[in-house]
Amino acid sequence: MGMRLSLVTRWTALVGTLLALGILIALGLDHLLPGRALLVLALSLACVVPIAVITMRAQIRPILSLFRALEGTVTSYKDGDFSFSLHWPQNDELADLVAAHNALGNVLREQRLALVQRELLLDTMVQNTPVAMLLVGDGAGGTGAIVYANLSARQMLGDGRKLEGHRLSEILSQASPALVEALARGGDGLFTAGEGEDEEVYHLARRSFSLNGRKHELLLLRQLTHELRRQEVQTWKKVIRVISHELNNSLAPLTSLAHSGAELVRRGQTERLPQILETIEERTRHLESFILGYARFAKLPSPRIEECPWPGFISRLASQVGLTVAGTLPPEPARFDPAQMEQALLNLLKNAHESGSPAADVTLQVRLAPGMLRIEVMDRGQGMNDAVLTNALVPFYSTKRSGTGLGLALAREIAEAHGGRITLGNRDGGGLMVTLILPA
């Protein structure tokens, strides 16, 4: 490496050289014109100053060019362009500044490349996820503008067209009424869209947060139909194993007892026959009760629709399980199968009591809406996580050790037999709300 020469040293040497040159010129002129000191000094300055100015400009020009280059690269950095670097041929403090500036540019360039790669990876993942994602700005209740929508959201809500910039209310005007109702209800939950073979089950999740000082809401729509069907197949396999196990546990003792009874009759020892027959009867009744419990769900009869006044219906419910009626009951009588609807609501109310909710917070509310009747069972228990919400309506799925998994599934069957549907959603402040939606 060459010897390092600092700026201070260079400028000091330059000024000293010029001063020495001026002194030499002055001494030479004074020798030629003795006694003319002022004239000598003026002549020396007239010679030295132009040289000094020219020399200083020649030295400053590359430095000014470097400063302009620094300003240009900083502007490029502001615009996100980190491809520029600088060169300074001297070995001085400015060389240190240029080296630090180039090192900063390299770091920013590497960070920008890494950030671009992460953004591409994240965008690829988000765009190809089967979950429909909508990011909505202020006024997400229907007045907010859609800031971002992935491919699944475009296909589900916009027939593949771009949704960004549109109002959420515009998109919802073309969407399923079940989705509109689920959004209006608030919180996370399940809802069903379509009828018959076209019925689809969705899970709606929503999260609010601030972005650049403004409130935004992220809506996640996940189609669960295929997952539910897969879970149903797995559950039915489990049910078949449970039934087979229960049948074997009952039939094996019955076979043994029948053989023992026959042997005792052959030997003429009939004193133990009453005990054997009593055991056989007990096991048979247990098996009959077990099979009827499952058959009752599988063979739900068609509902017998009739008018049912609300006061009497609610009184019968309250005599069997604790509940608090929220609001006022509709004056018009309901039209449904009283026995089936009573069974469905009993299951929902018992689940609410078993959720850990205080008994006083188990509430039933009946509301009339245009063309529909809403019966809401609410509690302040633990609610449901996403996994439980996903499988809650699957027959025989239960998180309780002794649960049959038929309560919610039976309520769903009864609601659909009446031409309605059932929805589940976690409540703000904790707890769950299960809603039976029936034709009015």
Polypeptide structure, described:
There is one protein chain. The chain has 4 domains: 7-117, no CATH class; 131-223, PAS domain (Beta-Lactamase, 2-Layer Sandwich), CATH 3.30.450.20; 228-298, Helix Hairpins; 306-439, Heat Shock Protein 90. Residues 1-5 have low confidence and may be disordered. The relative contact order is 0.07. It is built from 12 helices and 12 strands. It is an alpha+beta fold and 440 residues long. It is elongated. The protein has helices at 7-32, 37-78, 93-128, 151-158, 168-172, 177-185, 225-267, 273-298, 310-318, 338-353, 386-391, 407-417, and strands spanning 132-136, 146-149, 189-193, 200-211, 214-223, 306-308, 324-326, 334-336, 363-369, 372-378, 421-426, 432-439. Strand 3 and strand 4 (200-211) form a beta hairpin. The strands form 2 sheets. It has a 10-stranded mixed sheet, with helices on both faces. The protein has a two-stranded antiparallel ribbon with strand order 6-8. Helix 1 packs antiparallel against helix 2 and helix 10 (338-353) runs antiparallel to helix 12 (407-417). The longest helix has 43 residues, at 225-267. It catalyses: ATP + protein L-histidine = ADP + protein N-phospho-L-histidine. The chain crosses the membrane at residues 38-58. It is an enzyme of class 2 (transferase). It is found in: Membrane. Keywords: ATP-binding, Kinase, Membrane, Nucleotide-binding, Transferase, Transmembrane, Transmembrane helix, Two-component regulatory system.
